[in-house]
Write a structure and sequence with these properties.
Largest sheet: none
Strand content: under 5%
């Protein structure tokens, strides 16, 4: 079954589970492939950084959480953009979908400019807040300061990607980011170790390679929207035209998603900061295990995007039953893959960690952390797909509430009590992540099953 981007065969897909699965896979595989290349890039980059020692690994690991916190703002805007674009495309109103994409970028640009400037200026304070040890602090600050300029266009690229995916075009972002991931690996190899006549910049080289590639990728995605070559297009003559009513509609859906992402990312920041009190080895082990986890996350992300797109477009086309079926079929596909990956994490963690060259205490602790991650796979599959479906319907408030309860009350509460009250050590504290995902899966599954999201207006 083939479909022109932006005009999905919704009626045909709703006729049978097999047709629906083909549509979901058609939408999901480019996202999964894109994320796979990004994950390979992260793994290769971390493997390169790993050769510089535990301090370098911890510096990059501590740097990621604050960046992800800022990223949550643009993921929230992107969620609102996806929901509205999908609904408008499903209803056949392409002009309104184009205007939504335009206003999302116009709203995001000044915010991205200010936040990346603040992040670069306060890089040392940010890494110090994360609990970095003396040997890690200057490396982490250097990494964030070097990375920040490239994040400006990377954040805008995230918003552009969200709009294209909502319109059913998951392939354009894949093609752009695939090329830039290859560039990222090449630049990091050259700049970290000093090849082809370049100086060996170490951690700064890793940040510079990532900044250049991610920034260029975001710039290309935004530029494509002005080229009239993809399903969404923005005319240059109206580039500065502001539509406050449409921005408010985007934020009505996007603000709870923004808060959800902020709650999640800040909880992850605090979780890692609490683990950082146990030493650099614990931070490095957590970073390595979570880096490998990205592999299993790929289909869940792809199917979450597919659920968002199909739910939104089917609701726009007046097919609420088809929207519900797409969510369930996405969850079945996601559980199958992530359950398999969970078994690998449990049974052969040493082989998966071998690429990083971890040894001694770092390897021992990383193995245990990765096995705990393996137990999280099925709950993560359910959580991500149903959260994606609810976001596609515009029901971002319920996802935000579930995230608040599970990340802050359960994950952080469990970690704090086990580390600082009961003093049971980092391994027991790491199980807080499993408790978080398990409860989150139950709440989101019940919410999606309830069906009230079908009546949601955007």
């Amino acid at each position: 079954m083939r479909a022109k981007a932006g005009k999905l065969p919704l009626s045909e897909a709703a006729k049978s589970p097999s047709s629906l699965r083909r549509l979901l896979i058609m939408l999901a595989w480019p996202v999964a492939a894109e994320m796979a290349l990004q994950t390979v890039t992260m793994v290769v980059d971390m493997a390169m950084v790993g050769r510089l020692g535990p301090d370098a690994v911890a510096a990059v690991g501590l740097s990621f959480r604050p960046v992800f916190f800022i990223m949550s703002i643009f993921l929230g805007v992107g969620a609102g953009t996806t929901a509205l674009v999908a609904r408008f495309i499903g209803a056949g109103d392409r002009d309104l979908a184009n205007r939504t994409m335009h206003q999302s970028l116009l709203f995001s640009f000044p915010i991205a400019l200010v936040l990346t400037g603040i992040l670069g200026t306060l890089s040392a304070q940010v890494i110090d807040f994360m609990g970095a040890e003396p040997g890690v602090l200057p490396l982490g600050a250097l990494y964030v300061r070097t990375l920040s300029p490239g994040l400006l266009f990377a954040f805008l690229g995230m918003v552009a990607t969200s709009g294209l995916r909502g319109a059913g075009d998951t392939r354009t972002p894949m093609r752009v980011n695939a090329a830039l991931n290859v560039l990222n690996i090449g630049l990091n190899y050259v700049l970290i170790f000093g090849h082809l006549g370049f100086p060996a910049l170490g951690v700064q080289g890793a940040a510079l390679g990532t900044a250049l590639s991610r920034g260029l990728g975001g710039l290309l995605l935004v530029g494509i929207l002005f080229s009239d070559r993809v399903v969404l297009s923005i005319p240059l003559r109206s580039i500065a035209r502001w539509d406050s009513q449409l921005v408010l509609r985007i934020l009505r859906v996007g603000f709870p998603a923004m808060m959800e992402r902020a709650l999640l990312s800040s909880a992850m920041v605090l979780h890692l900061r609490m683990l950082a009190t146990q030493g650099t080895t614990v931070v490095a082990a957590s970073t390595l295990s979570m880096n490998i986890e990205e592999i299993s996350f790929l289909p869940a992300i792809g199917l979450s995007v597919a659920a968002s797109t199909t739910v939104g477009q089917m609701l726009g086309a007046g097919e609420p039953d088809g929207a519900e079926k797409s969510g369930w079929q996405s969850s079945y596909l996601s559980m199958a893959f992530m359950g398999f990956m969970g078994l690998l994490f449990l049974l052969i963690p040493h082989h998966l960690l071998a690429i990083y060259g971890a040894k001694g205490e770092l390897l021992t602790l990383s193995v245990v952390f990765l096995q705990i991650v393996g137990l999280c796979q099925i709950p993560m599959a359910l959580s991500n797909v149903f959260a994606g479906g609810l976001r596609g319907a515009g029901d971002t408030t319920s996802v935000m509430i579930v995230t608040l309860i599970c990340t802050w009350a359960i994950r952080l509460g469990f970690t704090y009590v086990t580390l600082f009250v009961l003093q049971l050590g980092p391994v027991i504290a790491f199980y807080g992540m499993l408790a978080d995902w398990a409860v989150r899966a139950v709440f989101l599954t019940l919410r999606f099953r309830g069906g009230s999201w079908k009546e949601r207006e955007v």
